[in-house]
């Protein structure tokens, strides 16, 4: 693990207040419509349930490729995310498109497996065709101060990914403090993460604006220090279009236009797609659609 510059303690009150300021910004008209479509293009549609079947993956991929009828001009989503045993089916269904197939790995969502088993999990998912791997850190080890192990596991997972991109999930709801979120961000980026991600979506709280702000600031500082652009993915609990717009405003202010792109910013929130597509339809058609007008992902 390389030596990182010392990190000052964060002012929690200031973080919360600054995050809240982004909720008071307003997008209207063409700018709002453009932002809503951009949000769709940044979504990773996810199904991570024990009841997942090839049929469910078929529906998920179809929804990701065509979130709305063509007349709305809505782009496809960025990726679908599934368990490793369903990767090959998702890859088959997405063939010929630009849709990425991501897979959770490393004993998702707990991370409580020996490292050799975690790495086999990653290698198998990549062999099945996954182009992105979403790993979870060992939160227990991190919280007991074993930061070197956290770094080493991320670095080993990155190596096991081969050509696939690595997203590192912190499960920020378990990290307890903003300082811990900031430190986990630094460790992950130093260890080779392509993306840092808030949550598994399996516990609450998941993604929040303050936590995501801390991670965005870490990404900004890492870029200024190294010249490397790292992506960020808030995941879990983002359900309304207005929330997505708050995140996009925050990304633009903290990181600039370069990060307003699916290669560097994603939403891990399948339920979000429902409200965003309804809002797009309202702006184009002049009235709200029934929520059942567009099938759930």
Describe this structure in words.
With 297 residues, the protein is α/β, with parallel strands linked by helices. It has a single domain (12-293), classed as TIM Barrel. It contains eleven helices and seven strands. It has a seven-stranded parallel beta sheet with strand order 1-2-3-4-5-6-7. Helix 8 (178-191) links the parallel strand 5 (165-169) and strand 6. It starts with 11 loop residues before the first helix and ends in a 12-residue tail after the last helix.
Brief overview:
The protein is of the alpha/beta class and 297 residues long. Helix content is 47%, strand content 9%.
Could you name the key traits of this structure?
297 residues; alpha/beta; TIM Barrel; seven-stranded parallel β-sheet; 7 strands; 47% helix; globular
Topology overview:
Blueprint: H1 12-21, H2 29-41, E1 44-46, H3 54-65, E2 79-82, H4 87-94, E3 100-104, H5 115-127, E4 132-136, H6 139-143, H7 147-161, E5 165-169, H8 178-191, E6 195-197, H9 209-226, E7 231-233, H10 241-255, H11 270-285
Parallel strand pairs: 1-2, 2-3, 3-4, 4-5, 5-6, 6-7
Helix pairs in contact: 1-9, 2-10, 2-11, 3-4, 5-7, 7-8, 8-9, 9-10
**In sequence order, what are the helices and strands, one letter per element?**
HHEHEHEHEHHEHEHEHH
Report the principal-axis shape: globular
- Compute the separation of the termini in Å: 40 Å
Number of helices: 11
Oligomeric description of these chains = single chain
Q: Unreliable runs, pLDDT <50, ≥5 residues?
A: none
Sketch the major β-sheet.
Answer: 7 strands, parallel
Count of domains? 1
Strand content: 5-15%
In CATH, what is the homologous superfamily?
A: Aldolase class I
Identify the CATH architecture: Alpha-Beta Barrel
Could you name the CATH topology?
TIM Barrel
The overall pLDDT average reads 94
| Strand segment count | 7
Kindly report the spatial arrangement of strands forming the biggest sheet. 1-2-3-4-5-6-7
């Amino acid at each position: 693990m390389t030596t990182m510059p010392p990190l000052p303690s964060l002012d929690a009150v200031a973080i919360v207040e600054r995050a809240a300021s982004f909720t008071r910004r307003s997008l209207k008209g063409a700018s709002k419509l453009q932002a809503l479509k951009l949000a769709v293009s940044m979504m990773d549609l996810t199904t991570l349930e024990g009841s997942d079947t090839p049929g469910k993956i078929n529906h998920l991929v179809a929804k990701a490729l065509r979130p709305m009828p063509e007349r709305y001009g809505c782009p496809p989503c960025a990726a679908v995310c599934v368990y490793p045993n369903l990767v090959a089916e998702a890859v088959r269904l997405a063939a010929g498109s630009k849709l990425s197939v991501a897979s959770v790995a490393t004993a998702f969502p707990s991370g409580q497996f020996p490292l050799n088993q975690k790495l086999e999990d990653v290698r198998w998912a990549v062999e099945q065709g996954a182009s992105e791997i979403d790993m979870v850190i060992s939160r227990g080890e991190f919280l007991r101060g074993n930061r070197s192990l956290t770094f080493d596991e991320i670095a080993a997972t990155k190596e096991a990914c081969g050509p696939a991109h690595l997203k590192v999930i912190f499960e920020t709801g378990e990290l307890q403090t903003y300082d811990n979120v900031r430190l986990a961000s630094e460790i992950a980026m130093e260890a080779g993460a392509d993306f840092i991600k808030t949550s598994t979506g399996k516990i609450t709280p998941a993604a929040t604006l303050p936590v995501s702000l801390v991670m965005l600031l870490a990404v900004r500082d890492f870029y200024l220090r190294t010249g490397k652009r790292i992506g960020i993915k808030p995941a879990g609990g983002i359900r309304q279009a207005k929330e997505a717009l708050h995140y996009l405003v925050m990304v633009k202010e903290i990181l600039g236009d370069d990060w307003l792109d699916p290669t560097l910013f994603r939403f891990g929130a399948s339920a979000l797609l429902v409200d965003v597509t309804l809002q797009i339809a309202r702006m184009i058609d002049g009235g709200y659609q029934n929520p059942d007008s567009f099938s759930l992902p």
